[in-house]
Amino acid sequence: MLIRAFVPAHITAFFVPVFNENPLLAGSIGAGINLEKGTNIFVTTENGPERHIHIAFNGEPVERNNAIISYSVAEKMIPKDFSGEIEVWQYFDFPNGYGFGNSAAGALGTALALAFNFKEKTFLQASQVAHKYEVLYKGGLGDVIAQFYGGIELRIKPGAPGIGVVDNIFFEGYKVLTLPLGRISTKEVLDSDVIKLIEEEGKRSLEEVLKYPRVEVLMKAARAFSERTGLLTGELLEIAIELDKDLRLPSSMVMLGKSLFALLREDEIEKIKATLTDLTIERYHICEVYTQRPSVERWMGGSL
Amino acid sequence: MLIRAFVPAHITAFFVPVFNENPLLAGSIGAGINLEKGTNIFVTTENGPERHIHIAFNGEPVERNNAIISYSVAEKMIPKDFSGEIEVWQYFDFPNGYGFGNSAAGALGTALALAFNFKEKTFLQASQVAHKYEVLYKGGLGDVIAQFYGGIELRIKPGAPGIGVVDNIFFEGYKVLTLPLGRISTKEVLDSDVIKLIEEEGKRSLEEVLKYPRVEVLMKAARAFSERTGLLTGELLEIAIELDKDLRLPSSMVMLGKSLFALLREDEIEKIKATLTDLTIERYHICEVYTQRPSVERWMGGSL
C-alpha cells in the first residue's frame, strides 16, 4: 500500500523565535506564506520478520544522521508491535537549506502518511511528533504549524499544532515569486547578536499586520524586518532592489535562506521574467499560494 | 462585486456543552462530521448614501428577528464608515432546525465573505464574530469552530476558533448518508434534565475516540451516546435499526435534530437505497466528507 502526502513549502517573512524546554511549547510567532510547490512524501509499508526504516531524499537513500528528524518521526509514528519494511520517499521542489521549510515538510508528511496508514494517531498528534523533532534537532521552529494550516499565515501564539495558534489573512490576485539563491545557517543566526533585533522587529511587524491584516502591509513589514535586522544585505539586497522596480509591492528575504520572494500580479509576470533574464537568474519559481491543509491519501497514481 | 463563501453542513455525533459568560470561551467538546453539502453565501456591496443590510434565506428576504445571528454578524463585520447597500444571500442544502449547522454556516459564511470584501479582519477574527453571535443567540455551541476546520473532527477544547482546539481523524473509503427527518429544539434539550447524562456520556465518548482515533470507534461511540442519553428513541431508533442491517458501522442520530446519519462504503450504497425506498423515505443525501476550510472567493460564475 502506497500513501502519498503533500506538504507545502513555507516561506517565513518575519519571526520571533520562542524557546522552551518543552519542544511542544517552543516555536515562533511571525508571518509567512505556504506555496503550491513543496514536498511530496510517499510511504510504503510491508510486513516482514524484521523492522527496518528506509528514508530517501529525491530518490537517493539517506543515512540516519543526515535525516535524523524524519527518522525520529518515523520511529515514533510506527506502532511498537509493527514488524516489517517501511520506506519513506521525500521529493523536494526546493533545495534543502534555502529557507523553504523542507525538513519540516518531510517530517510532517512522514508523520501524516504514517498516521493515515496505521490509523492510531490523530492529525494533531501526528503533527506534534513532527514539530517535536523539528525543534529538538533544530530544523526550524514555526514551519510545521504554518504548513499544517496553510495560506498566508500569521503565527500569533507559538508552539506545536494544537498548542500554537495560526491565523490567516485574506488576499486575492497574487502569485508568489521565489528565488532560491543559497544557504544560510539558521543556527548561526539564532546564536548571534542579531537575535535581539529579530525579536524587536519581529514583534513590531506582527503587530502592524494584525492591525491592518492585508498582504500589502505584510510585505512592507517583511522588507522592513529583513533590512532593519541586517539580514538582507549585499548582493541579495541589490537583487531585491532590482525586482522592486517591476513590482507594486516590495520583495523581501526568505527567513532563513539566501533566497528572495515577492507577491506578483498577473500583469507583472512578463516584466519580472525579463528582469530575471537580465540578471542572469535562471532558477526561480512563480506559483500560487497553497491555502489548504496538507493532503494525505492512498496513492493510486503511477509508479514512483 | 460578488463574493461567494461555502461553509459545510456539520453533523454533531456526540457532545458536551460548555457554558461561559464570555461567548468566546463558551462552546462544546465532542465529535462530528463536515459534509460537502452545506451553505452557499453570496454577498454584494454597493456604496450609497445610506447603510442598509438585507439578508435572504433560499432567495426569500428574512426579517431581522428571524435572522438575528447573521444580521448581528453583518453589522459587526461591515466597517463603521461604510455607507451603502449590503446584500447577503444564504442558500441551504439542508432544512433549518434539523441539526445540520445552518445558522452557524450562515453566520460564518457571512463573516468570511465580508472579511474578504473589506480586508480589515483576519480569518480567526471573522470567525470569532460568527461564533460569538451563534452562542449569544443560542444557534449552537460548536458548529462554527467545527466548520472552520473541516473533516471528521474532534473538538478537544471548547471555544471560538483561535481559542478552542479541533483535531481530525484519518479515514478512507467512506461517504456519509444523512436523513433529515424533523426538528428538535436544542434549547429545550439543553434546559432539561438530560444535560447531566449528555455531559457524562459525551466525555466518555470523546475519551474512547481519542484512545482509538478511528471512524469505527467514533460511530459506535456516537450510537452509544445517542441511546444512553435517551435522545435516540421511538420511530427514529426504529429507522436506525433498519439502516444498521445494511451497514458495517452503526448509524446514529444527528445532535440535535430529528435526523440520522451513517458512514457508507461504496458497496453498501445500492442496498441502503433500496431499504430507504422500502421505508418510503424520499429525502436523504449521500455525500463526501468535506475535509478543507470554508472557501471564500470573488465569484465569477453566472447570476444567482
UniProtKB/TrEMBL annotation, chains A, B:
<dbReference type="Pfam" id="PF00288">
    <property type="entry name" value="GHMP_kinases_N"/>
</dbReference>
<keyword id="KW-0067">ATP-binding</keyword>
<comment type="function">
    <text>Phosphorylates (R)-pantoate to form (R)-4-phosphopantoate in the CoA biosynthesis pathway.</text>
</comment>
<keyword id="KW-0808">Transferase</keyword>
<comment type="similarity">
    <text>Belongs to the GHMP kinase family. PoK subfamily.</text>
</comment>
<feature type="domain" description="GHMP kinase N-terminal">
    <location>
        <begin position="85"/>
        <end position="151"/>
    </location>
</feature>
<dbReference type="GO" id="GO:0016301">
    <property type="term" value="F:kinase activity"/>
</dbReference>
<keyword id="KW-0173">Coenzyme A biosynthesis</keyword>
<keyword id="KW-0418">Kinase</keyword>
<dbReference type="InterPro" id="IPR053616">
    <property type="entry name" value="GHMP_kinase_PoK-type"/>
</dbReference>
<keyword id="KW-0547">Nucleotide-binding</keyword>
<dbReference type="GO" id="GO:0005524">
    <property type="term" value="F:ATP binding"/>
</dbReference>
<dbReference type="GO" id="GO:0015937">
    <property type="term" value="P:coenzyme A biosynthetic process"/>
</dbReference>
<protein>
    <recommendedName>
        <fullName>Pantoate kinase</fullName>
        <ecNumber>2.7.1.169</ecNumber>
    </recommendedName>
</protein>
<dbReference type="InterPro" id="IPR012043">
    <property type="entry name" value="PoK"/>
</dbReference>
<dbReference type="InterPro" id="IPR006204">
    <property type="entry name" value="GHMP_kinase_N_dom"/>
</dbReference>
<dbReference type="InterPro" id="IPR020568">
    <property type="entry name" value="Ribosomal_Su5_D2-typ_SF"/>
</dbReference>
<comment type="pathway">
    <text>Cofactor biosynthesis; coenzyme A biosynthesis.</text>
</comment>
